[in-house]
Amino acid sequence: MNSIRRALVIVDVQQQYFSGPLEIQYPPHAESLPRITEAIDAAHAAEIPVLAIQHTAGEGAPVFDPSTPEFELHPDVAARRTENWKSVVKKFGSIYAETDVAGWLREHNIDTVTLVGYMTNNCILASAVEAEGLGFNTEVLSDATGAINLANEAGAADAKTVHTTLMSLLHSNWASVATTDAWTNALSAQEHLGGSDLGSSAVAGAQKFS
Questions:
Q1: Domains, the chain, with CATH or none
Q2: Phi/psi of residue 177, each to 5°?
Q3: N- to C-terminal Cα separation, the chain
Q4: Per-residue model confidence as pLDDT tens digits over 73-83
């Protein structure tokens, strides 16, 4: 089996997501944040690279204003930061859009990117989709990510529906989705996470809902 070169990417675990209209609802951040810190600890123990991403909407913006406390990483994450972490500020959903993340990963021979953080319905989704065209394998930790309730002119969905639906969607094509415990075991064993594919997911879906 080919050696796996992983990096853990902590996506936007910023104070903005812990209160107010963007507060993570499912899994609740009281549950997902400990999984995120467990993944960080496991990455440190395995000596794999860690990248910390923060989103900015620019100074004066109603959210993700870099001059406000809401922009900062959650203290539980910030306390684990080391001088070896790569820090990136982004302005789009994807971690790759107009950043040096893809180039940095290639320079370090990374082929597999593990995503934790927020939100499932925005930056996790966008990053996993863009990674396909860039040639990176993506892993998403289902209990170390989270979504919000959504409603607009096109429809509405509660956070649990949003999150679980997107986990199934990602696992069908763009990522290997697993729990933090399963990922930690795979990391220790230097094994790939199991995945699905669109054809298999379609067949199983047809059988389940026929």
A1: 6-209 (3.40.50.850)
A2: -105, 130
A3: 38
A4: 999 999 999 99
